[in-house]
Amino acid sequence: MANPLFDALFAPLAGQSSPLLILAAGEKISGDAFLRLVARTANALRAAGVEPGDRVAAQVAKSPEALAAYGACVALGAVFLPLNTAYTAAEVDYFLGDATPRVFLCDGAAEGTLAPIAARHGATVLTLNGDGSGSLTEAATGQGDEISAADRGPDDLAALLYTSGTTGRSKGAMLTQANLLSNAEVLVDLWRFTDRDVLLHALPIFHTHGLFVASNVSLLSGGAMIFLPGFDLEQVLAALPQATALMGVPTFYTRLLDDPRFTRNLVGHMRLFVSGSAPLLAETHVDFEARTGHRILERYGMTETNMNTSNPYGGERRAGTVGFPLPGVELRVMSDGREVAQGEVGVIEVRGPNVFKGYWQMPEKTAEELRADGFFITGDLGRIDAEGYVHIVGRQKDLVITGGYNVYPKEVELLLDEVPGVLESAVIGVPHPDFGEAVFAVLVARKGATLEAADALAAIGDKLARYKQPKAAAVVDSLPRNTMGKVQKNLLRETYKGWFKR
Ligand code: AMP
To answer: φ and ψ at 57, to 5 degrees?
Structure first.
């Protein structure tokens, strides 16, 4: 019997008395105790009817029990389907209808609302609360704490993760055992994770970053995790002295830098800081190094592909870039069906063992984005510089086409970010009576600075071709971001869509 993912991530925990999970309150859970929790949870899910290939959906707070539910699904050969805790009942309705899971795990407080929805889609509801209590735990308590993992092959599905769906319906990315395992193996090696590492884990586990990049890498290396329910500045500052590595979204780093207690001394012992899921401002990279002496290692990936590129561990970690394709991952930049010339911008495509199997029950969507030769069309615009570093220029759908000319928002944002008084910017396209779309800038002022939109635009006036210059700008307190730190340009486009009609 074989189950490559279980055998690599969970089986080695047997008999391990050292801590695997260190919780915010200081409680420690050994590897062996966690494995037994995984086994009991798997037995409870099996008793609820879960069989290999079945989906198990979970909209639950982050907890050791929630991580154990993922391990239990791997053990059973079931397909783990984590859902963002922010999703509304209407969204959950869509996901359960689309994925038809056998079991749906939700918080006890949401059971009243969600149970009828789950019942309509044929799913059994078990509850799991943030403190680990609930009917899943009750069911697991009476179960044996050993499990013989279901037989699985590398191409069998391990997880179904829905894309954030800012355009159209969210799509379920089918991720196989080999997708997850190959990526974890590459990252452990590249980022030099060992059983001596203690990863500060403050990311959500409903997303590829926290669930796969962070948890799988740590589990595979045999190290420990300081497992926090979320990013709480006080908890993170208190935990850093015990950690060797931190994986975060850019907002983790800006929030840390905003606090004077975040000092070189506090992190002098740390080995690695990784950033991803959204672009890290080059300025944050520079400020972080000035404050701590560490260079943040930025990497790039997505739900459908796991991780694609990374800055080097040993070599130069270059601000504003996402580094090189990972070993085993092919990356090309395409335009009009052809690879672009060196240094030019195009759509990034990737191929490798990390790339998903397709979208759940959406063969047409799959065929649109996953080419027959195995390359996945990421929808990210990028370029490769002379030294081979990959630069992300933005999303294809964020490209602004004004009067027939293409404007890459990133190019304009980089210039605006350098204007004195500007903390950060987001450039979008909004409807315009003459140009179709007009370039529009949304600016955030630095603390204490007064910023006039017109002055900021004037400051970049001679640095950009006229058609690339924003036709107007607005100053706001902060940019709308999702939980993974991504600026929600769709919301900005909605807010400012009437600007030129006024
Ligand atoms: P998700 O599927 O939610 O992980 O989102 C994936 C998208 O996040 C990618 O397609 C990129 O647009 C963006 N992304 C991830 N990492 C980075 C990064 N380091 N820099 C810029 N964009 C990133």
So the answer is: -90, 145
Instruction: Return the ligand 1 atom nearest residue 164 CA.
Output: 3
Q: pLDDT of 82-91, one tens digit each?
A: 999 989 999 9
> d(Cα 301, Cα 380) in Å, to the nearest integer?
10
What pLDDT does 165 receive? 63
Beta-carbon contacts of residue 27 (< 8 Å; ≥ 6 apart): none
Q: Distance (Å, rounded) from C-alpha 140 to C-alpha 149?
A: 17
Distance CA 30, CA 22 (A): 9
Q: What is the Å distance from ligand 1's center to 456 Cα? A: 28
Distance CA 332, CA 382 (A): 9
Mind listing the pLDDT tens digit for each residue in 101-116?
999 999 999 999 999 9
Q: Which residues line ligand 1 (CB under 6 A)?
A: 163-164, 208, 276-279, 298, 300-303, 322, 378, 380, 392, 395, 484
Going from the C-alpha of 481 to that of each of 251, 348, 430, 478, the distances in angstroms are: 10, 23, 19, 9
Query: Among candidates 180, 190, 185, which has minimal Cα distance to 82?
Result: 180
What's the 415 CA to ligand 1 centre distance in angstroms? 21
- The answer to whether the CB of 450 falls within 8 A of the CB of 456 is no
Instruction: Please tell me the distance between residue 279's alpha carbon and the centre of ligand 1 in angstroms.
Output: 7
**Rounded Cα–Cα distance for residues 246 and 268 (Å):** 13
Question: Given a cut of 70, is residue 502 above it in pLDDT?
Answer: no
| Dist CA 13 CA 34 (whole Å) | 8
DSSP class of residue 323 equals -
Site of tokens 């990959």: 390
Give the integer Cα–Cα distance in Å for 484 and 303: 12
- What are the pLDDT digits (tens) for 293-313? 999 999 999 999 999 999 999
Residue ID of nearest Cα to ligand 1 atom 8: 277
User: What size, in residues, is the chain?
Assistant: 502
Structure tokens at 419: 């204007």
Q: How, if at all, do strands 358-359 and 172-176 pair? A: antiparallel
- Is residue 287's pLDDT more than 90? yes
